[in-house]
Structure formats: structure tokens, C-alpha cells
Amino acid sequence: MELAHGTRQVSPSAAEDFISNMPDDVITNILDRLRVKDAIRTDAWCRNWRFKWTLLTKLIFDKKFFAKNNFNVKELSKLLFHLKGPITKFALFIDYKILDVEDVNHCVLSLSRKGIKELTINNTLPARLELAANLYSCMELKQLSLFHVCFLHSPTFLGFPNLLSLRLSGTLEIKANGSPDNPHTAVTYSLRLDCNTTRLPQLQNVVLSDIR
Q: Which domains does the chain have, with CATH numbers?
């Protein structure tokens, strides 16, 4: 008896069914490995993949992204609104194309409601970006990196209980009266950088540079 050997061809419809029937956690893992623009373009893969990009949990808007794409913070706010689940990682590079501080703060507020765990805001504009008190609502943060920003002092803020890593560069804390806190203080009051306090029991890594 002879055995026929050959390559079995999979029909496009069968391949489409396989992709469409993958569990959401597998799809999310695939999407999170793509650049944001490419993840959104999966909308055109097949009918059942429409809006699968709303499962994204990691968003990186770095310098390379804005150099290649005509994308502004207003569109970013709309994107965050459409995402279904939590956002675990978010990085935003701010250059001359992004000027609306209110939009940036609105994004931070949206992230606080989606359980953000890793947040990076890198401002390269000459003036510091003034973050609103929305930052203090990101209670699930594990990693926080802020570059060339300022934020208002909040005497009622109790700290980030889950924070593991904190990096501040060119960052300024402003008191309620508009004057900066002591520029020589290595521990800023509102962020509770003191590792010995019970307010930051998990903090393992702190990097401070050009704190004014």
C-alpha cells in the first residue's frame, strides 16, 4: 500500500476562523506587542477582528511614533475612551506637536480610572508641563517616570501604596501659593519618597535628577 505525502493547504476561511476564535487574552498579548498604529490597523484583518484593538493594555507614544504619524492628544483621548479593559502601561513623549495641557491631564484622569500601573510622561518643551491633581488618583501605579513637569502640592495625598520604582528629572513641586518647595530636599512631600514610611512600603528604586 502506498502512502501519499503532501502539504495540506489551509483555506483562507479556516485561517480566519482560527484567528477570530483565539481567546481575548491571547489577542491582547498579540496587540500589546505591536506598535499602536499597527494594532489599530488589525481592524482590517477580518470582520471578526473589528475593534479587537480596543483590548490593548499597553500604549507607547514615543518620539518615533510622533515623527511618523500625524497624531495629537485629542485623538489620544478618544482612543483611551474606546479601550475596554485596564491599561497597564502608558508612555507619552511630548514635543511641539502637543501643546494642550488640559488634554494631557484628561488622559491622566482616564488612565487613573483604568488601573494604570506604569506611567511615563516625557516633556521636551521649554516650559514645564503642569500636571493636575489627577496624578494622585493613579493609586495602582508600580512605576512612575516624570520628565520636565511640575505638579501641585497636595496635603491630603496619602502616597502610592504599590509604587516600586520612581524616576523624576527636571521636575518641580509647586505649593498652593505658587512657590516651589525646597529645591534641596531629596524627599518631596506630596510624592512621599521616603522609603521608610508606611505610605510607600513597596518602593525599591528611586532616581532623582535636576530636581528644582
A: 25-56 (no CATH), 64-209 (3.80.10)
